[in-house]
Predict the structure.
Amino acid sequence: MAAPTFSFPAAILLLLSACLAAASSARILTDPPEVVALRNLTRRSLGESSCRTGNPIDDCWRCDPNWNSNRKMLADCAIGFGRNAVGGRDGKIYVVTDAGDNAVNPREGTLRYGVIQDEPLWIIFDRDMVIKLEQELVMNSYKTIDGRGHNIQISDGPCITIQNVSNIIVHNIYIHHCVPSGNALVRQTPELVEMRGLSDGDGISLYAARDIWIDHCTLESCSDGLIDAVIGSTSITISNNYMLRHNEAMLLGHSDDYIGDRVMQVTIAFNFFGDGLVQRMPRCRHGYFHIVNNVYSGWEMYAIGGSANPTINSQGNVFVASDNLNTKEVTKREGNDEWKDWNWRSDRDLMVNGAFFTPSGQESASSYLKASSMVARPASLLTAKDPSAGALNCEIGQQC
């Protein structure tokens, strides 16, 4: 699968050169020679970037050449509403040695065996793996899935479900072509096997979950959402991910009638929304959403949407509209005129190629306190250095 390329007016090609590098940094199995050449050309034109970029997550750990020996320090690098997600920091290292899967009786050494354990575990891998799951991967609390150092893919089957649990970190995984599953027995803990109903085919599904951090993953082409969070899920950070080639990227909030999602607080930061995305980056209901320092490289319908009075605090993002005159608007609301009272603001966002954001509601900063989780960097800085989003190509013994 080739890394995406972009076709934009010459006037904004310089602006997007850094964005091209973000796309190239995503973990893809087969990069054709022309893509490799484009990547190298882009990096030469940008010059060698310094170790520290101003991204507070990456600056916390990526400069350490001994990151492999200090893996658990990643848990102290989270920001935003999901900053308290410790994952398996306080537990043992569990090494996945077997790419196979058995949904009812998982073998020790498989990913499923690790994620269902009752104890905290920091889960790593001993080699490159493509994992095709039998049924959705139902996780237990206090787990980290850490794919650094290898090419780890979950694909062409059911994917990750984080339901009624807390303290989960998913890092450096390439998740793609996820499909529905269910009406089948699935082991959820060492003691509990239950019949699961039909799943939607999300890349990562959050259901009544809290203290969740999803960082540096690449997600594309799933049957439903790439990342969906519903039924009172909250305290979530979605950061440094690369999303592409998908219709409905992120749904945050179960339904207009489900008022339990009024507690939802989600930070969406430093992500790259790339080629082939149509809508829901994200689509929000109820709750509070801090959308900060992301790069949007076109959208086929809209970028940020919502219903049922969500609070949207958009700060320091780069919105690059496509050349389609009918898709210049960043925002979309569902509802009648009541949306004019919803608090949606664009604060120091950079609008490119005719992109525009329709604000609503109050302008005072106090109206956005529950939708504020970190300090936004100036949007112009996102185009000044070589950013990196998606699964990283980290080599052991070197800075990542």
Observations:
- The two ends are 23 Å apart (CA to CA).
- The chain has four helices and 31 strands.
- The CA atoms of residues 250 and 282 lie 5 Å apart.
